[in-house]
Amino acid sequence: MTKHKLAILILCCGAAIPAAAQLVGVFEGNTDVGVTPQKGKAEFAGGEYRITGGGANVWGAVDAFHYVWTRMSGDVALSADVRFIGPGAVAHRKVTLMIRQSLDPDSAYAGAALHGDGLTSLQFRPAAAAETKEVKQEAMSDLSAPVRLRIERRGDNFVMLAGKPGGQLTSTGPAPTALTGPVYVGIAVCSHDANVLETAVLSNVTLQALPPAAANRPPVQRYRSRMAI
What we know:
Elements: H1 3-13, E1 29-33, E2 41-45, E3 48-53, E4 58-59, E5 62-63, E6 65-72, E7 76-84, E8 94-100, E9 109-115, E10 119-125, E11 133-139, E12 147-154, E13 157-163, E14 170-176, E15 183-190, E16 198-209, H2 219-222
Antiparallel strand pairs: 1-6, 2-3, 3-16, 4-5, 6-15, 7-12, 7-16, 8-9, 8-15, 9-10, 10-11, 12-13, 13-14
């Protein structure tokens, strides 16, 4: 591609897409984030996303995982039915519906996470290089069936909803995390052991921009218990 054509592409899109970007379903990018000796991958077929990732953790001040993402601005929600493949090597392998400021390992983010032991939690790093925080929800007892996860962004507040597909979802949050401009919205898979890879399958994935919140309504009221989504 000539420099002239590249300049036109950047002007039309508003930002250059990283070189590792690869379309996967409704998502525009597919890449490893952080130090991942075992390289991840992602596939989309039959309406399902099959995502394999490595990395030591999504926690502390830096992360390492495989990420399938697209860039969006404003309020947004991402939902999916999630299940793991196999028993897993580490109980805290995780799949996370994530909204992230950047692809840097220490980026600010918020995410709805399902762990390999069934724990669901709203994780968030409120600023770049800050320590990750967590609000735990109940553990899911039956991981042989999918878990329904949803992450919602409304301004600087993030909420997780989790439960059984087709059932009532329980909300957790809000968690305050200030993200600016276009952000990365997608699915993260981390093995929690840099020497192995773990796989999660996601179906019934919906990605949607949310309408502006009603004026003068307290933030917590917006996020009280929801019916199935």
